[in-house]
Amino acid sequence: MSVASTRREFLRLALGLTAIPLLTACGAPAAAPPPAATAAPPAKPVATAAPAVAASTPVSSAATQGAALFPNPQPPAPNTSPPKYGSTFVAPTYGDPLFGGDTMFGALSVTFTSTYPVNGDGSFVKQARDDVYKIAPHLAESWENNATFTEWTFKIRDGVKWHDNTAFTAQDAAWWLNLGVLGTRSGDKIRPPATWGRVLGDIDTIDTPDATHVRIRLKGPEPLLPLNLATQQVAHPRHLMQPRIDQGDVMVTPSDVGWVSTGPFKVTQYDKGSRIQYKRHDGYWEKDAQGNKLPYLDGISMPYVRDANAMDNAFIGGQIDAGIRNSNFALSKTRTKSDALHSSAAARRRTVSRFGNLIPTSIALTCVCGIPTRSASP
Hints:
Blueprint: E1 5-6, E2 22-23, H1 61-69, E3 88-90, H2 109-119, E4 125-128, E5 131-137, E6 140-145, E7 151-156, H3 170-182, E8 184-186, E9 189-191, E10 203-210, E11 213-218, H4 225-229, H5 238-246, E12 265-271, E13 275-280, E14 299-303, H6 308-317, H7 338-355, E15 358-359, H8 365-370
Parallel strand pairs: 3-14
Antiparallel strand pairs: 1-5, 2-15, 4-5, 6-7, 7-11, 8-9, 10-11, 12-13, 13-14
Helix pairs in contact: 6-7
């Protein structure tokens, strides 16, 4: 099976940041999406003068202003300079993660926003960062399937550690998947399967044929299994949770065991109703394309900002480095004022200068929090 498999065209639920530009992943510059309804830009764009407008043609001042402030993005040049380590990225969220940060049940953006830094941006596999319609390796370094797509085998990556420096094993991976697909019980207490359990298909068994592989057998063909695994998060350390389950605490959550996971950041402070603080996990396994250790950032700070106008003002004033998307944030009063466009553009340039290559996609939270980018010194 190829390492990158084409995925169908749908994205995970609305997680990310607003169209405010955000950090790209792994130190590799991410190409910004082309303008809507236009052809892709040439490989070597050539600057040209703006087309002349006939004097009799009415021109919208608002449209002209918008074009000047937010020109169509061009793919950035490859960044071959050494990465700069340090700094803390301030990325707000709008509330506490649900179910103690348990992504098996709290499948909403307020949960995933908070859990990407500690869990990373995938499970055995993930959405490829340069093309979200493809699947790439993550905690599994490779996988294969039989001819009928009824059996999938994943080779678990060596060298992955939980935040408490316990090795992540194939047995951990199989335990996590069984917990999500089947649930568990202790005495008369029952933990139901994850909300995504049935999405993976009609699974028959999950086992470990040896010390490094996880095997999934299904009752029918499931060619899209890697695609559906890519949007899940491994957030349940067997060595910490199984003892709690054996004692009857079947609904134990990640917050109950100190948010110990395998992602690039550790939770250092959780002030319920206020803020979550993260710091770099020095034992994180991933490196960038040049072999530099990830992540680059020292940490991430997530203050809770529930009001759209307050978020806009905080961004413009430099208290936060980006904003988030929420159903109530589509058009705040601040964003209807023309002078706010100028202030927002200046704030955008400030974030660019501090954190390097940026991308303006709504799914950028995966990149920002899962694997931070080259950041400037504080």
